[in-house]
Amino acid sequence: MSKEFSIAGNCVPELNYMVDITSRLDEISEMVDKGQYLTINRARQFGKTTTMGLLKRHLADKYYVWALSFESFSNETYENEDIFVRDFLEDILLPKVEDDLMTVQYIHSILDSPKPTRVTKLGTLLKKICKSQERKIVMMIDEVDQACNNQVFLDFLGILRSMYLDRYDSGAAFQSVILAGVYDIKNIKLKIQDEKVRRYNSPWNIADEFKVDMSFSPADIATMLKQYEEEYNLGIDIEWFSEQIYAYTSGYPFLVSYICKRLDEDVWKEDGFGSKRVAWTSVGFQRAVNLALSSKTILFGDMLKKLTDFPELNGLIQTILLQGIEPSANIYDPNIQLGMMFGFLKEQDGKVMVANRIFETRIYNWLISENQ
């Protein structure tokens, strides 16, 4: 079966044409080896889940890797401490320790008990497991945005933080914990419902800064196109396409794959092309870009929603696009922080600008439509 370019969910090497991110995985692995706790916060469809999946494979020979996702938990899970602990034990922990009979029996004793269970009991169990295993455990949690606005989740992070701070004395801690989501857990403004106020609460201030560049360079893009060319032998000018794709996307992973997917699956079927060899030319490339600009993907829908929900960020982007003003990259400006976190803005040479040409055109067209 032929591989395909993926724009939905995570990419799998056996099924998809993929950029070679081995150097990034090595870089993250070094941080794990040092016992660092990390937050991978990047924009939507920026390759977080794919990176986490490949990292699990990358670390498997050295560590026990617990790859979790909070996406499957309901809102009710995070609103009640007892429900959170029970769901965590049953849905997440039991499958990880099924070969440890004593731990399994202990978990069932908690689940069978009619008494409410506190997060502290979960912490005690996690410490025992970390201390008893032959290998160190790396816990990776994807989609943490689902949980980060709830006190129960903050209490859970507090447990992990206390294990981290006591790790050298007790030896009962994870080798590393990696959280992935759009929002930075260290800085997010959280609503603590018991107090009915908004305040900054940072139980994750133990995390080291994550500096790995997850965008794709032209050289990165070329590694994916080489895989495709080896299969089809179309005579693709890999260097030219890599540079052009980068010029329009600035290496935003979803957009890179989207353009390639349209060339592979759609452009060649249109009148005037007729074959993949003809599609993978400059004319076909421009057609793929136009398809990206007119598409109704989740990424663009989410972008317009956020620009509506955050009018001050919207105003900043209008200033950049319509007035040609590129503000200084002031890291303390909350709107600049938001724009960069969502992937709409980037910093270059000390100035802030829209992240890529496709976003520029898409937002500009939307602003014109709104004004009309």
Number of domains: 3
Order of the strands making up the biggest sheet: 1-4-3-2
Distance between the termini: 48 Å
Under CATH, the homologous superfamily of the largest domain reads P-loop containing nucleotide triphosphate hydrolases
Structural class comes to: alpha/beta
Structural summary, described in words:
With 372 residues, the chain is an alpha/beta fold. The chain has helices spanning 22-33, 48-59, 75-79, 81-96, 101-112, 119-132, 151-165, 167-170, 218-232, 238-249, 253-265, 276-279, 282-294, 298-309, 311-323, 334-341, 357-371; strands at residues 38-41, 64-69, 137-142, 176-181, 189-192, 197-200, 345-348, 351-354. Strands 1-4-3-2 form a four-stranded parallel beta sheet, with helices on one face. Strand 7 and strand 8 form a beta hairpin. Helix 4 (81-96) packs antiparallel against helix 5, helix 11 crosses helix 13 and helix 14 crosses helix 15. The longest helix is centred in the first third of the chain and has 16 residues, at 81-96.
Entry summary:
This protein is 52% helix and 10% strand.
